[in-house]
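Journal club prep, shared notes

We agreed each person brings one worked example of a sequence with its structure written out as tokens. Mine is AAA domain-containing protein. I'm keeping it raw so we can talk through how to read the token line rather than staring at a rendered picture. Sequence first:
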Amino acid sequence: MKRLGIYNNKGGVGKSTLTSNLGAGLAIKLGYKTLIIDLDSQRDTSKFLGLQDTTKAINDIFEQEDARRKGRVVANEIKVENCIVKNIRENLDILTNRGLKIIDSFIKDTKRFDLVFGRLLVDLEKMEYDCILIDCGPSQTSVNDAILSYVDHIILPIQTEMASVDAVENVYEYLDLLDLPSSKVKFVVPNMFDGRLVNAKRNLERIREYFKDNQGITITDPIQRRVKITEAGALGKSVFEYDIDASNQILKTLESVVTYLEQ
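Then the structure, token by token:
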């Protein structure tokens, strides 16, 4: 089982769109048993796959642990499998959230996220997923501190515009702050690329130049800006269910992830 976090501390780079479509591609198109964990408080990944509201969420686990910490009796043990929305697509499950305030507070108050998440991991391993994709919020929080420590590697989407490229160094500063190696970043995905624009081409070259000496990183082909990609998410569909041309934009990144999963 491989664990990949999709992270950039700059918002608006297409992180949740990428997460939902990679998860759907792995599950629907290629048959990998995949779990998406949506830990962005906006829950866009969940919404882009048609999950608007749910009574099941990772919050249930932390509410249970918080009750134990405060000495309350927990009548019925909640396990992670009880919190997962199963078969949102064939081979695709999702563990979403109902807001991250209680989780963030729990981590700050107890410093026990690793213990709690360790128990979750044991349960997840029993469920035999091929891949876990975690959509991280675009910020430096206690939740992201723990998630970035937990994942095997990071997929870093970068919008091909100046502010997004300029902010790449912030990701590495954050990893350094957490005493995590820069090698955590495994994939760089140039995103929302418009080949008609000189600035987009220039920023794509800046991305390639920035990472050119890092042999451990795969820079995928740029994902072109397509209206159909946005439309699919708004309708609660993946690009693989909505538009062939749009799905082709995700395929190269998907192929890189599959190569990684098979290693």
